[in-house]
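Meet today's protein:

…
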Amino acid sequence: MKRFIPFYVLPFLFGCSVTDLHTQPTLMLQNDKYTDEQFYSLNYSAYSCEENNDILSSPVVVRFRGNGKLNYMNIVYIGSNWVFINPELGMDMLIDGQHYILKGSGEENTEADSMGGVTEEANYIIDKPMLDKLYHAKFLQFRVMGSKGQVERCMTEEQLLQLNKIFPYLK
């Protein structure tokens, strides 16, 4: 019985450490066996930029999906007010101060929950040169537009370094 005690103690030693989700993101990988689409996500949100005019308290999650032929930057807005994000308006990006526009895929998804919260999701086409720019970026600021407003967020070098864990999976 004594030789099994260390095995009972190990989960307590390694399983009970406190981690901050902002510094220890989890890379989630999913594959759709029917479409060969891959979905990659980190578990934290882009933060509000200091000089934006949108709803500051609403999180925005940045994810990527693709199948090797076409990749998307997937933006998920979670808030209490509708923005009605329109991917056809594109996404404005400032990568280290350089302006770029990502074209929307035309796909969007909106949901309301029973507590009055809303979730809006839109996809923006991202090609290899843009992936390379994001991979080497020190600062990212992006804005998506909707019929009822805009959502603008920023990502620091630290967040982008975590996001870089996704890029090897995008073909």
